[in-house]
Amino acid sequence: MGKYLKKYWLFFILAPLFMLGEVSMDLLQPRLMGLIVDEGVLGLSNGGVGDTPLVIHTGLRMIGLVLFGCLCGVLSGVFANLCSQNFGNDVRKAAFARVMSLSFEQTDRFSTGSLITRVTNDITQIQNLVSQCIRGFVRTFLLFSGGIVCMLSLHLSFGVVVACAMPLIVVCVLFFIGRANPMFAVLQDKLDRLNNVMQENVSGTRVVKAYVREAYEKERFGDANDALLDTQLRVLLLFSYMTPIMNIILNISVVAVIKVGAIQVGNGSVTPGDVMAAVTYISQILNAVMRVNMIFQMVSRGAASGRRVKEVLDCAPAIADGAFDGETSVRGLVEFRDVSFSYPGMGAERVLSHVNLTIRPGETLGILGATGCGKSTLVSLIPRFYDATEGQVLVDGVDVRDYALHALRDRIAVALQKSEIFSTTIRENIAWGDPEASEEQIRRAADAAQASEFIDAKKDGLDERVAQGGHSLSGGQKQRVAIGRAILKNAEILILDDATSALDLKTEAALYGALGREHAGMTKIIIAQRIASVKDADRIAVIEHGSIAACGSHEELMENSEIYRDIYDSQLKG
Ligand SMILES: Nc1ncnc2c1ncn2[C@@H]1O[C@H](COP(=O)(O)OP(=O)(O)OP(=O)(O)O)[C@@H](O)[C@H]1O
Ligand SMILES: [Mg+2]
């Protein structure tokens, strides 16, 4: 992730520099305070007569230093935030881009909730880490080392206290860090689970309500939430033990400094002002060590999150881009050559086996078959949603794996089984694949998709906004918007995966009629459950258990294929 940070190197350097200014002011204060006590109040070098002008003068200097220190602190904060926020922003964009390029299988493996947590919460943790590193860490280190130097320069005997207190504090800090560290990765996992439940429920809210499963889902959410709470409480509890223990050590050290100081004052080797300064220094030093614990917390959390984000960033897209984006002599030709396929993680079980099929340019191919027989899987190999396990899929004579993905997918328009509708206007939904499309093109696509009638009936027509998930449209309306989108793309291959299942037969027939008339050159692959939907196709392929059981025109199949006749009888005879 260093490369994302590099861009902001200037902020990365300026923040600690200004922090140095702030800390220097903090370290100067006790000295001046000592001066006020020794000379201004006690008048040690003036025979016991105090010096009020010196008190005022030094007091003003202290205020000046405080103000300067504040200014440095503010600037350091500004630069640290500029650095960490911009860095986080870049990482978030990169992670999002990577998420978009993942294959379906990879997305499933991460789980949606986890991807959301990684791109949001985890990146925030890393941002905090960066900001802590260049501010908190620098501050702690400078206060610690500067404090020791200043204290020893007062009198070396104070070093004895530091030497005794330090090992105790370090052991204490290490103990707590060791206990807390493993919990941070667990914490993020719990957050993933919570997000998963949340995401499933929000997107599936209608089903949850329809099945009156709110109570169950609430419990499921409650469980995930409790698990998160449990881990969080364990972390916090651990740290709540720590602070008092550290405070005890700190207070004993302060007493020890006063004791050592008193002895030295008696010897005449230090002044009371020096002892006061030493008390402040020892608190600064030990506070710095205590803060190490907070920094470690940040580092552990940040590191755990860093690993999780890196997993996303490093996840090489399973569908590797090819190089070919040139012209081909044919357009609209699809060939399956001895294609077999199993979904990742399925083992030897096959969804498709030895499929051989050629779909000619301009042809309309219907695909029929029982539910789950592999129809959607077959067509998903054409735009490379998945890669064939064995065999080859060719588009226009070129293996789909050789195409640059954009070049391949430019040639194909799909309307999927489950119509994806985006929460924007109907117009933008139809023009999704071609935002530059003209009003007339959008109208024509909507006409062909038989969508114009219901669109015109809407209050704002094409500019009617669709609710998220397309919930403000009926199932058939959603399907027609999705088909309109596919038609508008005007690609050479059009795939409709059961995309007309919610249309009545008359509307469906009008749609196919319009497609045949206006887009005669387009290769059309139409998956359907009803024979009536594909009866007029040039050829119909019947799929059974992942293989092509029969292929031919309606008349040929009626004559030769027993399976087809069975389907026909079951659907149309009545
Ligand atoms: N992402 C996936 N991971 C694992 N198995 C899958 C996946 N998608 C589908 N399958 C399985 O592959 C088989 C074929 O699924 P496919 O979606 O191709 O069927 P289909 O013919 O389109 O069915 P339908 O008519 O119901 O849409 C099914 O048994 C299904 O369970
Ligand atoms: Mg399907």
CATH architecture descriptor name of the largest domain: Up-down Bundle
The total domain count is: 2
Low-pLDDT stretches: none
Shape summary: elongated
Strand content: 5-15%
Output the helix-strand order.
HHHHHHHHHEEEHEEHEHHHHEHEHEEHH
Rg over CA atoms: 36 Å
* Strand count: 10
Q: At the third CATH level, what is the topology name of the largest domain?
A: ABC transporter transmembrane region fold
Mean pLDDT: 90
Per DSSP, the total helix count is 19
Sheet bearing the most strands, described?
Answer: 6 strands, mixed
Report the structural category.
alpha/beta
Give the SSE layout.
Layout: H1 2-6, H2 9-41, H3 52-101, H4 104-110, H5 112-154, H6 158-203, H7 205-210, H8 214-267, H9 272-313, E1 334-341, E2 352-359, E3 364-369, H10 375-380, E4 390-395, E5 398-399, H11 405-410, E6 412-415, H12 426-430, H13 439-448, H14 452-457, H15 475-488, E7 493-497, H16 505-518, E8 523-527, H17 531-534, E9 539-544, E10 547-552, H18 554-560, H19 562-573
Parallel strand pairs: 3-8, 3-9, 6-7, 7-8
Antiparallel strand pairs: 1-2, 1-4, 4-5, 9-10
